[in-house]
Design a protein that fits this description.
It is a single chain. The protein is mainly α. Helices cover about 75% and strands about 0% of the residues. The chain has 12 helices and no strands. The chain has helices at about 1-5, 20-40, 40-45, 50-75, 80-85, 90-105, 105-125, 140-160, 165-190, 205-210, 215-235, 240-254. Helix 6 (about 90-105) runs antiparallel to helix 7 (about 105-125) and helix 7 crosses helix 11. It is globular and about 55 Å long. The chain starts with a helix and ends with a helix.
């Protein structure tokens, strides 16, 4: 009981997670090792129904555990659920699309998860933006659980399900993200919050905050769209990129 009270305590204590500390590096390594295991075992998972069911079950359990504990804390422990607990960050939305894709196997949901989950899984791990609670706290665990889940689900869809990138899914994802960002703009206006980081940036804060609002919004919209296009371009051209990288290594070694 005491542990639960500690995990779900409401009072913030001003804790700041130290980027690239030993703990941070270990947590990053865990994410990449998990992704490596899924990709290395992709053929075994694809051929073995029991193993595939187990991997999918682990991913679904991670997402459901996150959502139950996160929503409980946001809406029943804290009093600012509408301002901090809605799925209006791309990482949180990617959790829902990953869950829907794992259950329904719909390609469109897989696409959104991959477009948002790869970069959306890596960047927040490199530039952590945790709430001001010292360890242990449910928000600490859920922060990393979020990015593990969407990154591992993306690797699963790519490696095991052999997701094929298409212009249709790219267009759908771009339309989805822009509609999502417009919704976040309205939510931020009504709830005075920072969904999708449209009110304030977690990086380059001084430079970006000095911009007129309309330019800042344009930069954020452009960044989200470019990340999706970048992921699409990399995977569409991956074979050519691998060849060019090999040629570059050979020239460097010569």
């Amino acid at each position: 009981m005491q542990l639960l009270e500690e995990l779900f305590r409401v009072q913030e204590d001003g804790f700041h997670f130290q980027a690239f500390s030993r703990l941070h590096i270990v947590l990053i390594l865990v994410m990449f090792l998990g992704a490596y295991w899924i990709y290395r075992k992709r053929e075994d998972i694809r051929k073995n129904q029991d193993l595939d069911t187990w991997v999918r079950g682990v991913l679904i359990t991670m997402i459901v555990f996150h959502q139950v504990t996160f929503l409980y804390f946001s809406f029943f422990i804290r009093t600012d659920g509408l301002a901090s607990g809605l799925p209006l960050y791309t990482c949180r939305m990617a959790l829902w699309t990953a869950l829907l894709a794992l259950i329904s196997k719909k390609e469109a949901f897989k696409g959104i998860t991959i477009y948002w989950g790869l970069i959306g899984g890596i960047l927040p791990m490199i530039l952590p933006d945790l709430m001001a609670y010292s360890w242990p706290h449910i928000t600490n665990f859920n922060y990393f659980l979020t990015h593990y889940s969407i990154f591992w689900a993306s690797i699963y869809f790519l490696g095991v399900d052999q997701y094929q990138f298409s212009q249709h899914d790219l267009n759908f994802s771009l339309a989805f993200v822009n509609l999502f960002l417009v919704l976040c703009l309205f939510a931020n206006k009504f709830f005075y919050t920072n969904y999708a980081y449209l009110s304030a940036s977690p990086v380059l804060t001084t430079s970006l905050e000095s911009m007129p609002r309309i330019f800042y919004y344009a930069v954020v919209f452009l960044a989200y769209n470019l990340f999706i296009v970048l992921v699409h371009w990399i995977f569409i051209n991956k074979e050519e990129l691998v060849v060019k990288f090999s040629q570059w290594k050979e020239k460097k070694a010569a």
